[in-house]
């Protein structure tokens, strides 16, 4: 064999070996490719849905900054046979509410036929007490946002003692029923 033949033989071996490596590609199983495409599609759809909800104002970008007081739904049973009032009281333990501007919560009544009014009462550590009434609580969930300025007899919001939700016998048609409260919070 001549040198030229040896070089050509080596070049042929080298070039064929390198071209085989380049042509050889990893092939993924069909199931893996399908899983990848489905996952990518779901992520895309969720992204579009979340962006659309943000634009409508229902997303986290427009959310309020709030202090959650009662994260779970509360049930106020009232049965005005001997009683005159039923109350759900939250001990605020001298909570400073100066940085907040409103009380927000969701409420609904259980009895479709009843017409219910709810008294909301704040008391601070200085024994200042102020209340307002929410009338015609609906049968479906409704969110209320009440500015602190509506509680006119409270001058100092720096040391609050309690927040009470009160059902009174003279503010209902039926003498027994249920009111549900949910997502009680203070809003900035």
Identify the notable features of this structure and list them briefly.
37% strand; 2 domains; 9 strands; Jelly Rolls; 2 helices; 5-stranded antiparallel sheet
Structure description:
The chain is an alpha+beta fold. The chain has helices at residues 3-23, 30-55, and strands at 66-70, 74-79, 85-95, 102-109, 118-124, 129-134, 142-147, 160-168, 176-187. It has two domains: 3-61, no CATH class; 66-187, Sandwich (Jelly Rolls). It has two helices and nine strands. The radius of gyration is 34 Å and the shape is elongated.
Which helices and strands, and how do they pair?
Blueprint: H1 3-23, H2 30-55, E1 66-70, E2 74-79, E3 85-95, E4 102-109, E5 118-124, E6 129-134, E7 142-147, E8 160-168, E9 176-187
Antiparallel strand pairs: 1-9, 2-9, 3-8, 4-7, 4-9, 5-6, 5-8
Would you identify the regions where 5 or more consecutive residues have pLDDT less than 50? 56-63
Strand content: 35-45%
* Mean pLDDT across residues: 77
CATH architecture level-2 label of the largest domain: Sandwich
End-to-end separation: 92 Å
Number of strands: 9
**Helix segment tally:** 2
The CATH topology of the largest domain comes to Jelly Rolls
Structural class: alpha+beta
Helix proportion: 25-40%
CATH H-tier superfamily of the largest domain: Galactose-binding lectin
**Molecular shape:** elongated
The radius of gyration over CA amounts to 34 Å
| SSE topology string | HHEEEEEEEEE
Major beta sheet, specifics?
Answer: 5 strands, antiparallel
């Amino acid at each position: 064999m001549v040198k030229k033949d040896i070089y050509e033989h080596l070049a042929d071996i080298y070039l064929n070996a390198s071209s085989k490596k380049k042509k050889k590609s990893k092939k993924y199983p069909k199931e893996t490719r399908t899983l990848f495409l489905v996952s990518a599609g779901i992520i895309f759809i969720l992204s579009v849905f979340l962006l659309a909800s943000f634009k409508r104002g229902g997303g986290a970008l427009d959310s309020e900054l709030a202090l959650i007081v009662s994260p779970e739904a509360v049930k106020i049973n009232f049965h005005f046979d001997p009683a005159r009032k039923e109350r759900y009281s939250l001990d605020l333990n001298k909570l400073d509410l100066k940085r907040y501007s409103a009380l927000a919560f969701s409420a609904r009544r259980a009895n479709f036929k009843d017409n219910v009014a709810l008294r909301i009462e704040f008391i601070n550590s200085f024994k200042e007490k102020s209340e307002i009434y929410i009338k015609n609580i609906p049968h479906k969930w409704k969110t209320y946002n009440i500015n602190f300025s509506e509680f006119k007899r409270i001058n100092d919001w720096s040391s609050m003692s309690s927040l009470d939700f009160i059902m009174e016998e003279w503010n209902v048609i039926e003498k027994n029923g249920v009111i549900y409260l949910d997502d009680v919070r203070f809003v900035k």
